[in-house]
Amino acid sequence: MFFTKLFKSHVFLMLLSGILLALPWYEGLPSYTIFFALVPLLVSYYRLVEQKAGFWKTIGYVFLAFFTWNILSTWWIYNATLIGAILAVLITSFLMTLVFSIYHFVHINTSKTIGAFAFVTLWLAWEQFFHNSEVAWPWLTLGNSLGNHPMVIQWYEFTGVLGGSLWILVVNFFIISQITAYREKVYGRIAWFFSDVLLFFAIPFALSLYLFYSYEEKGEPVNVVVVQPNIDPYNEKFSGLTNDQQMDIMLNLAEESIDSTVSYVVCPETAIDDRIWEHQVAENGSILRIKDFVNRHPNAMWVTGLISLKLYEPGEQTSPTARKLPYDNRYYYDRYNSAIQVDTSFGLPIYHKSKLVVGVEMMPYPQYLKFLEKLSIDLGGITGSLGTQPDRGVFKSLDGKFGVGPIICYESVFGEFVSGYIKNGANLLFVITNDGWWGDTPGYRQHLTMSRIRAIEMRRSIARSANTGISALINQRGEIIDSLGWWKRGTLKGTILANNKVTYYANHGDYLGNISAFMALLSLVYALVQYLMKRKER
Looking at residue 186, what is its pLDDT? Predict the structure, then answer.
């Protein structure tokens, strides 16, 4: 009796969905719950529709499910900013509920089948939007939930992460359709259960296993040294240690592991914090120390993060993120979270991070909301809207054989964005990041899984340098072949492969999201026509 009442409770079912949705975002907890996580929510929703519950009551219950999912999965943001965590949870929960509200409109004005189709396409379109808008926060993209299980998502090289979201949504709706058939005593539909399982779940699973075991890594071997300096971002990085002391740590670590076979030394995001003017970069003390290192080890190239500044001359066209020079109002300048390659040619190519963290590194639509920059969260003195660049920069080796895509921190969350490096000639991907802001929480582990997904989507080996961990070497199947754990100082030395083959996904990007947006619009238009016809009949 107790359990019967419990499973009839809308609050319980919505909370259960939120919990099942959150479990895959924790390493070591079951990820398979994602395939039926929406079922309790949909069971509750269908009951509310049958009971003719009001719109706000129904949507209020749905919000509870999404709020639970968000807070259980991304609570760790509070470690850096409580306000940021609250806003991220509330805004994302609201947007998810908004998507469901549109689905609700389609469902009540058409049918369960058309409604289900609308939900799947609307959700994929929304995930696509959240990957590309200026308020991008695609952390909880459903397909990301399988990042720790590369054996089952090898076909992401064709579909990208949205393919995983599609798989998850279809399986959830298949299960709810079977539950509905049972409730309505449509036993003929239930008889197709096993064939449907084969179609919707087993075939993608089997295909991935086949790809996993048959895939042979491609490309020329490249020896790399990944440096993990483990410098506390709160107490050492921007206050406790001088730039020279931090460079001492990284140079000494690299020196311990370097030999004549090493082609790259990789250091983390903002490893150089000298606020370097780009027109003076060749004269900077930290850059000159790295130059001395590569001159002594001429086979090695050094790739690292830095904070750089660009000065605009009076009258020169400025960007929307440019600001006045405090001590001379005639000049404007831009600040960047950047990456640089130092080699014996001393060409010093610089790439500017272009997918920025909302509220920390950028305010959305800076050409209109520049006045809000004062509200930015201070993480290491690079607050306000930073500058970006339109194209993905690729660092070429001196012999032209290798091209490195320098992915800076948050950029590794965006599959289609990362494909820009591949199209520009990157046959290696380096992820440089500083995940220490979140402390020893699930945040940095979740971030690592997204690098594994990018490795599969692009079929590129990845060297990942994280200031406080987890640094890793990841192969083209998304497997971690070596790693250095949280809050450890040291290096990883290993071999990765430079692959030149371009995957279908790298070529075509998030086409599933674009198709879904079109199909969702058709569903919405059809529902709107049906709604107007019903009103006219009244």
Answer: 58
Torsions phi, psi for 372 (to 5 deg): -85, -5
Locate 236 and state its tokens.
Answer: 């050492």
Cβ contact 443:435 at 8 Å: yes
Task: Give the chain's end-to-end CA distance (angstroms, integer).
Answer: 43
Q: Closest Cα partner for 225 from 257, 186, 261, 185?
A: 257
CA dihedral 131, 137, 142, 143 (to 10 degrees): 50
* Partner residues linked to 484 by β-bridges: 471
Distance of CA 311 to the CA centre of its chain: 31
Rounded-to-10 torsion of CA 459, 460, 466, 470: 40
Nearest to 438 by CA among 197, 36, 85: 85
> 339 forms bridges with which residues in the sheet?
305, 351
**Strand, helix or coil at 300?**
coil
For residue 352 the two structure tokens come to 């500017």
Which residues lie closer than 8 Å to 63 by C-beta, 6 or more apart? 93, 94, 97
CB 338 within 8 A of CB 305: yes
449-465 residue pLDDT tens: 999 999 999 999 999 99
Mention every residue, 6+ apart, whose C-beta is less than 8 A from residue 92: 66, 70, 74, 137, 140
Cα–Cα distance for residue pair 205/192, rounded to 1 Å: 19
C-alpha span between 336 and 109 (Å, rounded): 50
> Residue 238 in contact with residue 273, Cβ under 8 Å?
yes
Under 8 Å between Cβ of 221 and 463? no
The pLDDT of residue 286 is above 80: yes
Burial of 523 (0-12, 13-18, 19+ CB in 10 A): buried
Which uninterrupted H or E stretch holds 57?
helix 55-74
Residue 52 near residue 108, CB atoms below 8 Å? no
Tens digits of residue pLDDT in 102-156 = 999 999 999 888 999 999 999 999 999 988 887 888 999 999 999 999 999 999 9
Share in percent of the chain as helix, strand, coil (round to 5):
55, 15, 30
Per-residue pLDDT, 187: 52
In DSSP terms, which residues pair with 311 in a beta bridge?
333
CA–CA distance, 287 with 218 (Å, rounded to integer): 34
- For residues 164 and 146, is the Cβ–Cβ distance under 8 A? yes
Q: What is the dihedral of CA 439, 440, 443, 444, to 10 degrees?
A: 100
Q: Using a cut of 0.90, tell me whether the model's pTM lies above it.
A: yes
Alpha helices in 135-202 (DSSP H): 156-159, 161-183, 187-190, 193-197
Can you say whether residue 344 is alpha, beta or left, with left for phi > 0 and alpha for psi between -120 and 50 degrees? alpha
Q: Is the dihedral of CA 362, 88, 510, 404 positive or negative?
A: positive
